[in-house]
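Quick one, tokens below:
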């Protein structure tokens, strides 16, 4: 009996190291070939315009109110402005799922069995990390690509984005590279410290999260 329990625990720990990839063919992202910051800006704008769908596997350390939480996450985004960020528990199951399309946001808390749907502005006031920026725009920045909008300002290095600002959200790439390696996003006292584990283009579609019928609706998202 004890041996069986040990095997089950080991299997759970191994499962925690795995992340379910969406079905589809993938091609790893290639670094830029630019020799200057201006050339990097041009190449990234071209890649943004030509992008179909991309996926990144991330390790995120989220800090808010003096408390930190580390989790593994998967980010998917496509050229239609659809974004899905799935954070996982240590056992590889879903913890939260954040889906955005246009000005609409859906947030699913799989740990507490709740969900919420609303606009970008309301989401920003409750969730906080992204400020007034849309999750889709932030998703592009986490992919190392410039997002559209008058409120965005950028600094480039020959190897990729160096810094991005939108409102009071600051995104720093250390080192500047495409695809990104390490990103620090700060919004006031809140921060996301992100390590990119892998990035690729994919043929997999970005689809809204399925919400189990037993989940409780309209619970405002918080981290």
């Amino acid at each position: 009996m004890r041996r069986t329990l040990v095997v089950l625990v080991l299997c759970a720990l191994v499962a925690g190291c795995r992340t379910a990839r969406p079905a589809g063919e993938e091609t790893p992202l290639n670094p830029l070939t630019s020799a200057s910051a201006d050339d990097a800006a041009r190449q990234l704008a071209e890649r943004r315009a030509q992008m179909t769908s991309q996926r990144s596997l991330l390790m995120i350390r989220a800090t808010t109110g003096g408390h930190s939480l580390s989790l593994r996450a998967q980010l998917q985004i496509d050229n239609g402005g659809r974004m899905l960020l799935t954070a996982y528990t240590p056992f590889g199951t879903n913890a939260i799922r954040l889906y955005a399309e246009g000005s609409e946001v859906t947030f699913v808390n799989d740990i507490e069995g709740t969900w919420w749907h609303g606009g970008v502005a309301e989401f920003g006031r409750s969730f906080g990390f992204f400020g007034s920026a849309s999750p889709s725009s932030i998703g592009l920045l986490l992919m190392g690509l410039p997002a559209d909008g008058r409120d965005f300002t950028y600094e480039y290095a020959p190897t990729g984005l160096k810094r991005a600002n939108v409102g009071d959200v600051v995104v720093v790439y250390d080192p500047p590279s495409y695809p990104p390696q390490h990103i620090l996003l700060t919004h006031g006292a809140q921060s996301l410290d992100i390590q990119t584990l892998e990035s690729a283009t994919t043929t997999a579609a970005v689809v809204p999260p399925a919400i189990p019928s037993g989940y409780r609706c309209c619970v405002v998202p918080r981290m």
